[in-house]
Amino acid sequence: MAEFRRLFASAVSGVGQLPASAREAIEGLAEGVDGDVLAAYLAVAVAACRGRTKPDEDELARVYGSSSPGRIRRLLDHLERSNLIAVREDFAGERTISVLGMECIRAD
């Protein structure tokens, strides 16, 4: 079941659409990520790889399997407390998300 979850997370996150080098690097970063949040983490990483620091919340909700904005906020908080991402909000409430370890990974 764990292998199926990892394959499903990869499929719904879009990581398979990245160039091989970026895909392999992201999959390496995601090795220790829990299966229940893996798809959302991968979706954030794919967005970061493509240069998007503000992943679409509707996309995160779809990948995570929820339409609740509160649940998405808790998910992002959990990923941040797990030292997988860094979330910053400006004074206007705009959120910027960085994936830790992604500094050198780019979608060519």
Description:
- The protein is mainly alpha-helical and 108 residues long.
- The chain has one domain: Arc Repressor Mutant, subunit A, CATH 1.10.10.
- The chain is 51% helix and 9% strand.
- The protein has 5 helices and 2 strands; from the N terminus they run H-H-H-H-H-E-E.
- A two-stranded antiparallel ribbon has the order 1-2.
- Helix 1 (2-13) runs parallel beside helix 3 and helix 3 (38-49) packs antiparallel against helix 4 (57-64).
- The N and C termini lie far apart (33 Å).
- The mean pLDDT is 88.
Question: Based on the structure given, which CATH architecture is correct?
Answer: Orthogonal Bundle
Topology pattern, helix = H, strand = E? HHHHHEE
Instruction: Trace the largest sheet across and list its strands.
Output: 1-2
Number of helices: 5
Count of strand segments = 2
Mean pLDDT score, rounded? 88
CATH class: Mainly Alpha
What's the topology here?
Blueprint: H1 2-13, H2 20-29, H3 38-49, H4 57-64, H5 69-81, E1 85-89, E2 95-99
Antiparallel strand pairs: 1-2
Helix pairs in contact: 1-3, 3-4
Tag the structure with descriptive keywords.
108 residues, mainly alpha, Arc Repressor Mutant, subunit A, globular, single chain, 2 strands, two-stranded antiparallel sheet, 5 helices
Summarize the structure.
Helices cover 51% and strands 9% of the residues.
